[in-house]
Specification:
The complex is a heterodimer of chains A (about 350) and B (about 230). Chain A is α/β, with parallel strands linked by helices and about 350 residues long. Chain A is built from 12 helices and 8 strands. In chain A, strands 1-2-3-4-5-6-7-8 form an 8-stranded parallel β-barrel, surrounded by 7 helices. In chain A, helix 5 packs parallel to helix 6. The two termini of chain A are about 20 Å apart. Chain B has about 230 residues and is α/β, with parallel strands linked by helices. In chain B, about 30% of the residues lie in helices and about 20% in strands. Chain B contains 9 helices and 9 strands. In chain B, strands 3-2-4-5 form a 4-stranded parallel sheet, sandwiched between helices. In chain B, strands 1-6-7 form a 3-stranded antiparallel sheet. Chain B is globular and about 65 Å long. Chain B starts with a strand and ends with a helix. The chains are: A alpha/beta (about 350), B alpha/beta (about 230). Chains A and B meet through helix 5 and helix 6 of A and strand 8 and helix 8 of B.
């Protein structure tokens, strides 16, 4: 075992893993993180804490992850290379490990020009750091864990226990290079992968065939990204504007059409109906990606809509989440799994 | 070339408000080529500034001057007396030239009349794009001639992020994805395999991060020749 995190144990024991995303508040209101932890507890093997996603200042991922630990929920701390140089990143990783955080997802981070896709001011004038890239970060963390060494070569007094993750956009351009990108992430040290949101399952299944051809699915645990749709508008936006996400028309058409002059009651009813459809689509996507060989779990993102997660996990028959007993050996015995 | 862009005239007028005698200094090299601060721009700007102050009934005189190369003191020195006689020099040279002026002209204020925006190349009759970040440790042998330091918004060294779409970068419609180009060139050359290698963290000490950089070339023997000339002279 690398870090003995719950997520690692669940994956190692051969269970279909479930992670969910938690967006920290745009304030110091740690209570929000606790409330969201309450919602997600028991419905995911680990909960991802985003690191100022869309380049908007939020309660830090390291502090949010520490709050999750206090709440008895296992965090996956996201770490972008946008805001910190290699000195700050390694110091924060040591701090996170000292606090008991065992999973870290290494990502490039959204460009500072994003500011929540124009909905907020954000900080477009910020200086981006990008001292290292996300693949280099994976390699640094792997060496901090396996070789007890810092990037500059100085020794660490003890290994840094981490289960290391990476993000992957399977259908991003240039498409034929995405496998290479995954292979590099695996070679650099990615123990698990969380993909960009999948809506076109057929296309994703095709890419997974290439993944299996290179044996990458055996070297890393691929968790398919499921972004829970809220409305046709959201899907249309993602299809048009989010790179690497393509949404089949059939999915968009399933949402109710709301006339512009609809009454507030009609709009409210349509919204509620859309939410139900969105959750249903998420469940179907989970069931479909689960059938693809090499997919070892799902990462559910209900953006600013965490209460949707328990319903989805339940409807996808992914409950109860397994509890895997701690083990001293490198090869955990699946028989100790109380849920199997 | 070093690409410059002239500042807004209102900005310039505001910064020059307290000076009476101003030299507008152009540069005959890069600033001329990119239509930001050559002889023509100096003349036009002098006229515009003169008109603007006349309209306000203010008294300030603007004297235009263009050196062959402002970043080389040898070319500026013949005009040094004129420059020192002014209250301020409005420099239309790049930041390198303007800094050199400040180093040399102890008593004269140097005001930038242009923004130095990048090291780039012509990308059309009226367009220039950034090509080099002068990081001091060129790695484009590994990226098929395309620089991810200068041309990727995230300086990614190991491939495109998730924001590459149809060859363009997600940050703006007019920005090409450097990695899409790198992959395209690798593919065309049948060498995609080379991009499987992980490029390690870059040593930024050769870039601006290492402090002001300097280049010394004792091997050229120029200093020795100069000394000999002086001895003989």
């Amino acid at each position: 075992m690398k870090a003995e995190s719950n997520l690692e144990k669940v994956i190692d024991a051969g269970h279909f893993a479930v992670t969910a995303e938690l967006g920290p508040p745009m304030s110091s209101a740690g209570g929000v993180v606790r409330e969201k932890a309450d919602i997600l507890r028991g419905y995911a093997d680990a909960v991802n804490i985003t690191d100022c996603q869309t380049a908007v200042v939020r309660l830090s991922s390291i502090a949010s992850a520490a709050i999750l630990l206090q709440e008895g929920v296992e965090p996956v701390m996201q770490m972008t290379v946008r805001d910190r140089n290699r000195i700050a990143i390694q110091a924060d990783i040591l701090g996170a490990a000292a606090l008991g955080i065992k999973n870290c997802l290494c990502i490039a981070g959204d460009h500072q020009s994003f500011g929540a896709a124009g909905k907020l001011s954000g900080h477009p004038g910020a200086k981006n750091v990008y001292d290292i890239d996300s693949i280099q970060l994976l390699d640094i963390l792997r060496k901090m864990r396996d070789e007890s060494v810092q990037q500059g070569g100085d020794p660490l007094e003890c290994p840094t226990p981490l289960f290391i993750g990476a993000a992957w956009t399977p259908m991003g351009d240039p498409v034929d290079f995405r496998i290479v990108r995954l292979a590099k992430k695996v070679a650099a040290g990615a123990d698990f992968i969380q993909t960009q949101g999948i809506y076109d399952v057929k296309q994703f299944a095709d890419v997974m065939e290439h993944v299996r051809h290179r044996g990458l699915h055996e070297k890393t645990a691929i968790l398919a990204g499921i972004i829970v749709p809220k409305s046709a508008g959201m899907l249309r936006y993602m299809n048009a504007s989010v790179a690497g996400v393509s949404v089949p028309d059939e999915l968009i058409k399933r949402f109710p059409k709301v006339a512009k002059d609809a009454s507030p009651e009609e709009k409210k009813a349509a919204r509620a109906k859309s939410q139900e459809i969105g959750k249903q689509i998420a469940v179907e996507l989970i069931e479909q990606v689960r059938e693809i060989e090499g997919v070892r779990g799902v990462h559910i993102q209900a953006i600013e809509w965490e209460p949707a997660v328990p319903d989805i996990v339940k409807a996808a028959a992914l409950l109860p989440r397994p509890t895997v007993a701690p083990t001293d050996t490198d090869a955990p015995d699946p028989s100790v799994d109380s849920a199997s | 070339m070093i690409v410059v862009k002239q500042k807004e005239i209102d900005w310039i007028l505001d910064r020059l408000a307290s000076f009476h005698k101003v030299v507008v200094l152009g540069c005959g090299e890069c600033a001329t080529v990119c239509f930001g601060g050559g002889e023509r721009e100096v003349e036009e700007l002098c006229c515009a500034l003169q008109l603007a102050v006349q309209e306000k009934d203010e008294a300030a005189e603007f004297h235009g001057l263009t050196c062959e190369r402002v970043c080389d003191w040898e070319f500026v020195e013949p005009f040094a007396d004129t420059l020192r006689d002014a209250d301020a020099v409005l420099s239309l040279a790049c930041g390198a030239g303007s800094n050199l002026l400040a180093d040399k002209l102890e008593t004269v204020r140097v005001i930038p009349g242009v923004d130095t925006i990048f090291l780039g190349a012509n990308a059309g009759p009226d367009r220039w794009t950034e090509m080099c970040a002068a990081c001091g440790d060129c790695i484009i042998d590994q990226t098929f001639g395309i620089c991810p330091v200068a041309r990727c918004a995230k300086t990614l060294m190991n491939g495109p992020c998730g924001g590459s779409k149809d060859g363009m970068c997600e940050i703006r419609d007019d920005v090409e994805c450097a990695w899409a180009k790198i992959v395209e060139r690798a593919r065309a050359l049948g060498r995609l395999d080379e991009l499987e290698r992980i490029i390690p963290p870059k040593d930024w000490s050769t870039a601006r991060d290492g402090g002001q950089r300097a280049l010394e070339r004792a091997d050229l023997g120029i200093r020795r020749l100069c000394t000999e000339d002086l001895d003989e002279g």
